[in-house]
Here is the input.
Amino acid sequence: MCEILAPAGGKNSALAAINSGADAIYLGLPEFSARKSAENFGAEDFKEISSLARLFGVKVYVAMNTLVKDAELDKFLNLIIDVQNAGADAVILSDIFLGRFIKRSYPQIKLHLSTQAGICNAYGAELAKDYGFDRVILSRETKLSDIAEISKIIETEVFVQGALCTCFSGQCYLSSFAGGNSGNRGRCKQPCRKKYSIDRKGFEEPAYRLSLADLCVGRKIEILREAGVSSFKIEGRMRRPEYVAAAVKYYKNLLNGCSGEEDFSDLKRTFNRGNYTSGLAFGQDKDFISSAVQGHIGEFVGVIKVENGKFICISRQRFSKGDSFKILREGKEVGGADFSGDSEGGFAFTSKAALRSGDKVFVTTDSAANKRLLDKERKLTLKVSARFFAGERAEISVDGHKFYGDNPLEHAKNSPLKVEEIEECLKRVDKYPFEIVFGEVDTDGVFLPKSVLNGLRRKAYDGIFGILSENKNAQVVKNHVLPRPKTAENGKIAAIVGDAYGISADIIVLKPRDYFDPNEKLSEKFTKKDVSGQKYLYLPSFMSGEEIERVLPLIAPADGVYCDGVWAVKLCAKLKKPLFAGCGMNISNRVDLNECPAEYVALSKELTETEQRQLSTEKTFALSSGSLKVMDLIYCPFEKRCSSCDKRHLYSLTDEEGRRFTLARYKTGECRFEVYNCANLVGKSVTGTLIDCTTLQDARKAVEICKDIQKQRIFYKNYTRGHSVSPVL
Here is the structure.
C-alpha cells in the first residue's frame, strides 16, 4: 500500500483532496482536535464528506489527538463511539494509554497513534502494536534507519509535506506557559514563529531563530517507500484548499513516475515558507531553519526594475488581476505587491513599500493556477443499461444494480418513448459525481411521462450512491467501565539533577549533559554510597534505536529509568527495570494512570492542583518547582555551525517582549537542546513532589526548600505558579 494522505481542515479542503486523487483524508471535529482553529466538521458535514469519500474508496481518519482530562473522559469516549458508528476508517489518538483502554473495550475501532505520542524507535512501535494500534504516525524527527525498522513491526505513516513543529512531537509547552493556550489541547499560538535573539556570536540580532522551513521530501518519497512506509502524510489542516490540491497532485504524480516540475511550481505558489527542507529523516540540511522569513513567500518569478517611479517585474511569466507577490531583498521580506497590468518585458505592479531595482519578486497568489487546481472534479464511471417494455416494470441497471418503476408500462397511443430520450435523461446525474457510459438501452415504444422518467433516474442514482457509499463500520454501543478513582497521599520527593552529591531526596534522577563523555563518570554516580535515595537515569524523550543501544550499559547500574517518551515503557519491560514515567507522557486522567505500567508517574504539567489531587496516588508526582522545560529541540538552532561553536551548556533565548528563556545543550552523541521557561516554577505539590534542577546553580538549596513556597519565591525571584492555579485553554 502507498497512500497519499491529505489534510481536510474543512469541507472545501476535503473536496480538493478527493478531487485531486488523495487516497485518504484526515480531519477533526469541533472538540478534541489538535487543530482547534481549523474549520473542522460538524455531524452533517462529516456525513456528507465521508459518504463521498467512500464512493471513491478514499479513507477518512478522524483526529482526536488532544490531551484528555479526567472530567472529559465520558464525553471523549462517547464521541469515539459516535465517530466509529458514523463511518470513520480510523481514529487518531495521541494518548497511547487511553488507546489501550479503548481497544480493549471496543476492538472493532481502528486506532492510529498520533505523531504527538512521539514514536521514534522500535520500542515505541512494539508498544503501540501491543496496545492494539493499527498504525503509528512517526515523529517528524525519526531517523531513516528507524523508519525502516519500525515499518517491519507495524504500519507506518510519515510526514512528507508541510509545516514542521520546532519542538519534538508532544513535548511542546511554550504556547501553554507563555500564554495559556495549550498545543496539547489544540490551541497552539505558535510562539516559535516569533523573533528571538541568542547570546552567542552571530546570533545576537533578532530573527526567526526557532522557525523551521516547511517540509518537502519531493523525490525522496521513493526512499521512504523503499523503507516500507505505507502512508505519506501532507500536513496542513490550516492551509487553503488550493494548497491541498497542489500537494496531493505533486506527490501522486511523483509516485506514478511523473517529473512533477509543473506540480512543484504550483505547490510553491500555494505555500512555501522560506526554502523547503527534506527533514530530519535525511539529516539537518542548510535550509532547515527559516530565520530570515517566517510566512508564505511563494515562487521566484523575476526581479524589479524601477522606471519613473513605477515598478516593473522583469519576467517571462504572465499574470493577471488578483495575483499577489512578496518582495525580498537579501533574503528578507520588504513588502507585498499586487498585479496592475502587463508591461514590456514583464508586468507592472503596485506596492506601498520602498522597493529598489534588483529586488526579487515572488508570486504568492496565482489566480489562474488556483482555478486550475480547484476546477478538477473526480468522477466515478458507471455503466447504465435500461429496459422499457410494455407489460413490464421500467428497469434501470447501474453497474449491475437494478432499479424498477412502480407499475407495468403500457404501449404508447402517441409519442412513444425513444431510446434517445432515455439516454438524454440518464446522462443528467444531478448532484452526483458520476460519468455515465451506456450499455444496452432498449424500448418497444411505451408511454412514460417525463416526470416519471426523471423520478426513476433519481431513484436509480440515489440508490447506487447509497450502495456505493454505504457505511459498513461495525456499530458499537457503550460498554466501557471507567476505573474507579483511588486517591492516596504521597510525601516523597524526586529531584532531577546533574550531580547527586549533597542532594537529599527519595528519588534522584541523574541527568547527564553528555551521555557518552567519560568525564561524566555515570557509573560512579550510581554506585556512590553517600548518595541517598533511589537513583534513576534520565533518558531524553527522543532517542534513536542506535542511541538506545549505546546507552544500555549506562542503564545497568541504575535503579530505574526516568523518561518523557512512552517508548521507555517497552524498554524498561525488556530490561526488567522500574520506570518513572515523566511529565512528557502527559498522564492526565484516571485511565492513563490505570493503564501506565510505571513504578512512578509524573502527572502532566498542564493540570491544575485540583486535577492533580484527584489523581494522586502512592506512585504519582507533580512538577511543582524548579526549572520548567517547555521544548525539546532535536536539531541545532545554531544551524550546525560546529567549527565556530563555543559549546556552552546554557544560553539565553530572548523574545520580542524581552523575556529570557534558557536554552540548554545536551549530547546523546549529537548536540540537542532544551528550552526552559522564562520564569522558574514555584509551588507545593498536592501529591509526590518533583523538582527539576537542570538550569539551577544551587540544586541542593532548591531541593531543601521544594515544599516551602515562601522560601522558593525569595530563592527564585522570577517565578510562576504555572497551571497549578491557571487552567489551560
